[in-house]
Amino acid sequence: MLWARELIARNAPVRNRPTPSPRECLLDKAKAAYLGLAIGDALGATVEFLTPNEIRHQIGIHSDITGGGWLRLKAGQVTDDTTMSLALGKSILTQGSVDAKAAAEAFDAWMRGKPVDIGNTVRRNLIQFRKTGNPAAPASEHDAGNGAAMRLLPIALACYGQPPETTIFSSRAQAHVTHNNALSDAACETLILMVQDLMSGHEAIDVERERAATLVQTPGFAYDKKRCDNPSGYIVDTIQAVFQSFFATENFEDCLMEVVNRGGDADTTGAIAGMLAGACYGMDSIPKRWLKALDEATSQKCTDQALALMTLAGH
Ligand code: MN
Ligand code: MN
């Protein structure tokens, strides 16, 4: 009798989690990219504008979402990087497509809502938009900040599966509202294609290394291999710190700790690195303590929008 029971137990099917379908994997990564962006923003904001030395002195290793920083944030609160992304995403969902004018109006409404922080280039060109109604800022070699790159995730999601030309057109539509600059464009387009690649599960991180290498060959974009500490808001600096952290680590947590402890524009490097790492490693890789710490309403908005944008893209 005992023998029979043992035999049955041994032959019982193992109750593993069912293997997720390709669509479930894709949506998981879209969600992880959006939550990664918000988590990187909330984590990095605490140490924004500190140098690595100041971080070591004041905190040690910065590894928890605690709020504070020069913006005196509540723990889990996010900044312009996330809230501008959400404003852009909402405009795309309302419009049913990426539209420069709708994006400009959404950013303008966002600015009227007195955000906790706002970049100089963003403010200047949104005030210009109010005067002219033209959703494309004049081209300027000085507008090479990271303000367009920090909020591009909704484009990557809404354009998922579309030809690269369509994606690039949409990228410029949103970016040029405030940053009409060749270096910013090159960075935005590379980041969007990387997010899309990573979401589709291209195992080979080498594909992304090549994309990164191509960007770095863009005239004006070259940077040396030297470690970029204290990255500024200049897009080349930002990308250097993000790529160095993303390609030198193998999971979400290490990637974000690596980038935010470099200080400087840490909420933005955190947001961009978090977006890439989320798209690459998926929801399971995001530490629970960070998911829990993120402001609940923000977390819900990011999740809802990630799924809605993927539905709009036909997935
Ligand atoms: Mn910010
Ligand atoms: Mn910032």
From TrEMBL:
NCBIfam families on file: dinitro_DRAG
GO MF annotation terms: ADP-ribosyl-[dinitrogen reductase] hydrolase activity; metal ion binding
Cofactor: Mg(2+)
PANTHER family: ADP-RIBOSYLGLYCOHYDROLASE, ADP-RIBOSYLGLYCOHYDROLASE-RELATED
Keyword Magnesium: yes
Protein known as: ADP-ribosyl-[dinitrogen reductase] hydrolase
Cofactor info, note text: Binds 2 magnesium ions per subunit.
Record EC number: 3.2.2.24
Domain of life: Bacteria
Keyword NAD: no
Keywords per UniProt: Glycosidase, Hydrolase, Magnesium, Metal-binding
InterPro entries: ADP-ribosyl_diN_reduct_hydro, ADP-ribosylglycohydrolase, Ribosyl_crysJ1, Ribosyl_crysJ1_sf
Binding site for Mg(2+): T79, D80, D81, D265, D267, T268
Cited Gene3D superfamilies: ADP-ribosylation/Crystallin J1
Pfam short name (any one): ADP_ribosyl_GH
